[in-house]
Amino acid sequence: MSTTSAGLPGTPLDGAPSPSAGIVGPGELLALFRSRPALTRAEVMTLTGLSRSTVNQRIDLLQDAGLLVAREPDVVPGRGRGRPSASFAFNEDQGVLLVCDIGATALRAAICDLSGRVLRDLPLTSDVTEGPEAVLSRVDPLFAELLRTAGRGPEDVRGIALSVPGPVDHEQATVVSPPIMTGWDRYDIRGRFARTYTCPLLLEKDATAMAWGEYRTHYPDADTLLMLKLGTGVGAGIIAGGRIHRGADGAAGDIGHTQVTGAEGDAGPLCRCGNRGCVEARAGGWAMLRDLAAAGRDLSTVDEVVERIRTADPVAVGLARTAGRVLGTALAETVNILNPRVVVVGGQLAEAEEQIFAGLREMVYSRSLPLATRRLELHRSRLDVRAGSVGLALLLADHIFAPTTVDAALADPAS
Q1: Of 213, 208, 227, whose CA–CA distance to 1 is shortest?
Q2: Rounded to an integer, what distance in angstroms lies between the CA atom of residue 215 and that of residue 223?
Q3: What is the pLDDT of residues 46-69, one digit of tens each?
Q4: Are the CB atoms for 161 and 139 separated by under 8 Å?
Q5: In whole angstroms, how large is the CA radius of gyration of the chain?
Q6: Are 325 and 305 within 8 A, CB to CB?
Q7: Residues 67 and 32: beta-carbon distance below 8 Å
Q8: Torsion angles phi and psi, residue 91, rounded to 5
Q9: How would you label 32-53 residue by residue, b for 16+ Cβ within 10 Å and e otherwise?
Q10: Is the confidence at residue 4, as pLDDT, over 80?
């Protein structure tokens, strides 16, 4: 797994820093430990070029802060009689992270260790259109339950991260003019959680969190990755040059509200954003529910749509194939512009893989430039329902343990 050495967006550690990398602070040394299971003092000296005294001083400092723990040396039979060197590892148990992946019709709360590994999660049905107080009041008891079962309290929480299905001001941790998230515009999410937790809080777009989770855990060498989320709505997250690409104002990846031209004179169905002919209005989960209702199918959730597709309901299958081609048309334009190495498809509709993926591949490979698709890989999400949670946890860990943040905290322990 690739590990980042900086805050958001992270900078991948491609192997170890060379002696000329200029490591000057304990924060960067901690980043080195976070990228490996364990290191001895001698290994740190080799990887960084630092002197023995400097390495000893910085390891001691990180140990005293509880960020590193000593590990008993492994004794290998037949490998000499000298005492093996002690090693040190990042202390991933010195606190926990809380994350919640909030979708249009459901959410998933999770507790994670400080390396970003999900320890336990709890899913819950929830309607994001009910507004922030209603939704977040459901998150509160889930966080409390996760902490209780882990034997932890609010004081052990080192950071919180949430993802939402709407445009996000990442720096301010607010939702900005969301098409479907009634009441969420500029709502003070940080202030609300500050009533209970004294820790950093991050807010991310759901597809972006999923993209980061897939990239870091399964495609760290991809460099450029596009995550396509197909659920109630349609969204995308972009990794470019090994970094999250949010755009100038955080609006990058809003593929669901690009317009796809229909037959001559067909403006397309009305979208929830107020425009007509959006990809989401033609191929999103809510659009398929609308069209199935018009065909006399009484369904209420996207999961029910997927089940109808799997059981070969002819109307549902036809809609899925059409949706795949609509999505593929929009994706082909994105592939031409971004030239990703990997496209990962996740969300509820990705479970109808046979029908959706056929249209996606057909349109992408017929409408994209040959050079853009020469090495393109198209995969279903390997993290599945946990993609957002994993991405949020990794983003949060990178943010909390950014070298500059660690250095500042060690210089001023009271902070």
Answers
A1: 213
A2: 9
A3: 999 999 999 999 999 999 999 999
A4: no
A5: 23
A6: no
A7: no
A8: -85, 90
A9: bbbbbebbbbebbbebbebeee
A10: no
| Token couple for 274 | 């107020």
- 102: CB partners within 8 A, 6+ apart: 126, 128, 135, 139, 162, 163, 164, 165, 206
Per the structure block, which two tokens stand in for 393?
């946890």
Tens of pLDDT along 121-146? 999 999 999 999 999 999 999 999 99
Q: What is the mean pLDDT of the chain?
A: 90
Residue 9 vs residues 208, 243, 244: alpha-carbon distances, Å: 11, 6, 6
Please enumerate in sequence order all residues whose Cβ is within 8 A of that of 374, keeping only pairs 6 or more positions apart, or say none. Answer: none
What are the pLDDT digits (tens) for 88-127? 999 999 999 999 999 999 999 999 999 999 999 999 999 9
Q: Please state, for a pLDDT cut of 90, what percent of the chain lies above it.
A: 83
Alpha helix ranges (H) inside 150-266: 189-193, 206-218
Q: 179 or 88: whose pLDDT is higher? A: 88
Q: What CA–CA distance (Å, rounded) separates 378 from 235? A: 16
> What residues contact 258, with CB distance under 8 A and at least 6 apart?
278, 279, 330, 333
CA distance 202 to 144: 19
**How many angstroms separate the CA atoms of 292 and 18, rounded?**
59
- Pull the structure tokens for residue 314: 């002819």
**Residue tagged 């809510």 (tokens):** 286
Mind listing the pLDDT tens digit for each residue in 282-293?
999 999 999 999
The CA–CA distances, whole Å, from 38 to 14, 30, 67, 68, 89 equal 17, 11, 13, 10, 4
Are 386 and 118 in contact, with CB atoms under 8 Å apart?
yes
